[in-house]
Amino acid sequence: MMRALILGGTADASLLAAEIARAGIDAVYSYGGRTRGPAEQPLPTRIGGFGGASGLADYIRREGVTHVIDATHPFAAEMSRNAVEACKDTTTPLLALERAPWAKVPGDNWIEVAEVNGAVAALPETPARVFLAIGRQHIAPFATRPQHAYTLRFVDPPEAPLPFAADVIVSRGPFTFDGELETMRARAIAWIVARNSGGDGARAKIDAARTLGLPVIMISRPELPQRSRVESVTEVMHWLGHRTPLGA
Ligand code: 3Y8
Ligand code: NAP
Fold this sequence. Notes:
Largest sheet: 6 strands, parallel
CATH superfamily of the largest domain: NAD(P)-binding Rossmann-like Domain
Bound molecules: ligand 3Y8, NADP nicotinamide-adenine-dinucleotide phosphate
Helix content: 25-40%
Number of strands: 12
Structural class: alpha/beta
């Protein structure tokens, strides 16, 4: 009897959950518990860590999970690594639903860096107005460049004091092109720092930066272990043996 576990937390995972619920497949949706009020899902939902790869393996055995879909974010590297290890240990089929990275197009002015410290080093020495659209968890390294005027964007209001003076926008996205243009113009943003998340939910800032001719410091994705990977919900449904009726 099939029982799927969706490692979620992204717009793509929500789309998959809706298809799986519609198909009547027995499944559980899992959030890491990073945000206060995550979006409701049409499936039984669990929130919080499993306790490492071994905790996930125990969960798979205890709950009789037969298929795992890793629909987490391309930067959720620890979760994805744990999923590969736990599924190998329990010989459970694993498939990643992972959107392609954004590709540079004519007009883009990107400075590509490997990780956050590279992004800090890529900023100019002279004071600038910088939009850090990389969430809450990885902003501390920018404290070494306090000369800049930072705008941050979080899903939830900050609980702890910030590591440096900054304006904070509280918004969970997805974001619109017009909204990003307005944000960047109103705040006279001159530099954007982004992660190459891919997908549509966060690409508006990249399009707005191109329109305004602003440089984007683009942080590349972390390396992940080899695993089967698709980019569409339809391919996941086929992998689960669910053929969408023709023309449906
Ligand atoms: C908890 C679930 C939907 C899902 C929305 C997508 C789109 C907007 C783009 C910017 C970049 C950022 C951040 C971002 C995007 C979608 C999608 C996506 C980036 C929620 C969600 C959870 C999280 C966790 C959160 C991180 C943070 C990252 C904000 C829900 C809204 C910056 C990633 O405060 C925290 O601790 C937040 C942490 C991980 C990265 C970070 O390091 O701060 N996402 N985001 C999931 C869980 O608990 O399992 O609350 O409903 C999901 C979404 N985030 O419904 O349409 O890509 O699918 N999320 C990045 O790209 O750098 C925002 O501001 O431009
Ligand atoms: P991460 O650093 O890879 O994971 C850290 C730990 O959080 C994992 O080892 C696991 O804890 C727990 N965890 C993460 N995702 C989980 C999930 N879906 N279900 C259960 N436990 C989970 O992850 P992250 O980057 O903090 O991302 C956390 C969540 O936010 C994920 O759902 C991800 O899809 C979503 N998200 C992340 C980003 C991003 O930029 N990273 C962007 C959008 C959405 P244990 O080891 O205890 O099992």
